[in-house]
UniProtKB/TrEMBL annotation:
It comes from Qipengyuania spongiae. The keyword Hydrolase does not apply. InterPro entries: S-AdoMet-dep_MeTrfase_Alr7345, SAM-dependent_MTases_sf. One of its GO terms (biological process) is methylation. The keyword Methyltransferase applies. This is Methyltransferase. Keywords: Methyltransferase, Signal, Transferase. One of its GO terms (molecular function) is methyltransferase activity. Residues 1-21 form the signal peptide. The lineage of its organism: Bacteria, Pseudomonadati, Pseudomonadota, Alphaproteobacteria, Sphingomonadales.
Amino acid sequence: MRFHPTFFAGIAIALAAPAIAQDHSGSEQGEHHRESADHVADQDAFMREHGEQLSAALNHPSRAEDRARDQFRHPQETLAFFHVGPHMKVGEYAPGGGWYTRVLGHYLGGEGELVGLYYDPTSGPFNEQTQANIRKGAAGFAAEAADFTGLPADNFSGFTLESPPEDQLGTFDRILVVRMMHNLMRWNIADSELKTMRTLLKPGGMLGIVQHRAPADASAEYADGSKGYLRQDDAVGFVEALGFELVGASEVNANPRDPANWEGGVWMMPPSLGGDDAMDARTRDLGESDRMTLLFRKR
């Protein structure tokens, strides 16, 4: 998970190659999982146009320690699927330890713009200290991103979704929500946060989501976000109901080795390895979680 070290201090609850997606028994999960042939072709064209710049960002020295996880997080393929161009204004939702900030900062650093988007501190189960930490994180995002990337702080900005500045509405080309939807669902703030994100996007702007995926036959109780996993059809239907249309679903971040049924939730998988020694021995070499990768367009 990508959390700022102080982000949830004091939180007042106890918490968590493109194809047809398959559940762990090999059957199709649902009708929302196909990626259109047109979108696949568009990705090829995208890489011909922007692949060199994206590769340079991924190979920047600031990412020396990050690259070990590229094999699990597939940033090049993910950003190509999301059609994130180097000229775009991109919102990184709930930025944390800097993993995607370093990629996006260098990729957008020439002609684009990276903005850190933080939770509405009044919307969730956040006590006063946590609300203060959220506001502090947003105010300090530019300086933190500069530290992460070695780029000027002027390249970055950040704000919370409590009351976005008027001049920011309708100005974003992309907003990326990476491994965070389960928190929005279990805190019952997904509706309000995604609605606000929609107001930030340009007409036709796109929302990219990467999320831990539960099997299609997982119980509603297991897949409500409290275990870190969501069913893909549930996620698609929820986002579509808020004024988005699904562009495509990619399997680039799928991991069939993850049964996605751990009693302790996704945190039993690397990199968290939150179990006891016996559990960690079972999961250590499985890679990271099975993940859906979804792209939506603002209607």
